[in-house]
Amino acid sequence: xxxxxxxxxxxxxxxxxxxxxxxxxxxxxxxxxxxxxxxxxxxxxxxxxxxxxxxxxxxxxxxxxxxxxxxxxxxxxxxxxxxxxxxxxxxxxxxxxxxxxxxxxxxxxxxxxxxxxxxxxxxxxxxxxxxxxxxxxxxxxxxxxxxxxxxxxxxxxxxxxxxxxxxxxxxxxxxxxxxxxxxxxxxxxxxxxxxxxxxxxxxxxxxxxxxxxxxxxxxxxxxxxxxxxxxxxxxxxxxxxxxxxxxxxxxxxxxxxxxxxxxxxxxxxxxxxxxxxxxxxxxxxxxxxxxxxxxxxxxxxxxxxxxxxxxxxxxxxxxxxxxxxxxxxxxxxxxxxxxxx
Length: 341
Ligand code: EPU
Prior knowledge:
This protein folds into 3 domains: about 5-70, Uridine Diphospho-n-acetylenolpyruvylglucosamine Reductase, domain 2 (2-Layer Sandwich), CATH 3.30.43; about 75-230, Uridine Diphospho-n-acetylenolpyruvylglucosamine Reductase, domain 3 (2-Layer Sandwich), CATH 3.30.465; about 240-340, Uridine Diphospho-n-acetylenolpyruvylglucosamine Reductase, domain 1, CATH 3.90.78. The protein is built from 7 helices and 20 strands. It has helices spanning about 30-45, 95-105, 200-205, 215-230, 250-260, 275-285, 310-330; strands at about 5-10, 20-30, 50, 60, 65-70, 75-80, 85-90, 130, 135, 140-145, 155, 180-190, 240, 250, 265-270, 270-275, 290, 295, 305, 340. A hairpin with a 6-residue loop joins strand 18 (about 295) and strand 19. The protein binds uridine-diphosphate-2(N-acetylglucosaminyl) butyric acid.
């Protein structure tokens, strides 16, 4: 098999932030064999690899001296589960939202709260995608990945992925070390609604004819409706979802902040107190603010947007200004969530 490796390819249309970016080499792969060939090419040419799904969680610089690899390995395989559960093996190149809809059509539940998240299945573990009270790690079983150096296939369990809040081993120890080729998730044949997130519960009540036992589709629809209201459609306005993580602070800091800012939202989590980064940013007056071609979305201050012609430097300059202001006002640091290349 010979790969079609192209040179100097614009990937502006392949990242949801819509940043103008040129890849020195570019290849689209649809099989593990093709992936191994691409890895060999990168080794011979001593190139780093940037594996993209939808490019929905990356900030790309103008010129990428790398092999950009569009992972389109498909596959939806129903594996045996025990009792009421079912396991699905999903190719890395399956679109996340199509997968969510397909599982609901099959009568498999567990992904409904994660509807409409941009991106592809193989990238979901990298940031442990999450929304409305559910994270990938809650339904995740294992994944397969190819070692970039040796080309060997490995299987990793949920523990080995070291999932945390918008975090995993693939952002740290295994960053740039492997390419994920498939994931296995465990779903249920009976719906167990997770409506812990208040706004979701309210929306489901409005949608469902039976507010006590909503269907999986009702929940999916409610999630989609909330997301459409709050988050910009990347086809219309370039963005990478939440640009910062919600910071987690200590009890001491929480008390200090509550004393100074009575309305500040705080949520208790295992590690301490989670703050709403969107609230901090809005409080500093940034909602709807623009700095040249980069801006802060006017309906959700945690989302940075590209007005059309921003480059990564513009986005990062705005991010720095926001970080500095929030740090000065609250003594809280904001961590950038997407991966910067
Ligand atoms: N808020 C404001 N102003 C804003 C935005 C938020 O005051 O402009 C405050 C409000 O108090 C609101 C709270 O922040 O109640 C939470 O806002 P929201 O429900 O919109 O959620 P979020 O914390 O901003 C997180 C995730 C989203 C996920 C939603 C729903 C992170 C970094 N972001 O956002 O994930 O969809 O919760 O679960 O954890 C993503 O990661 O790309 C993403 C979109």
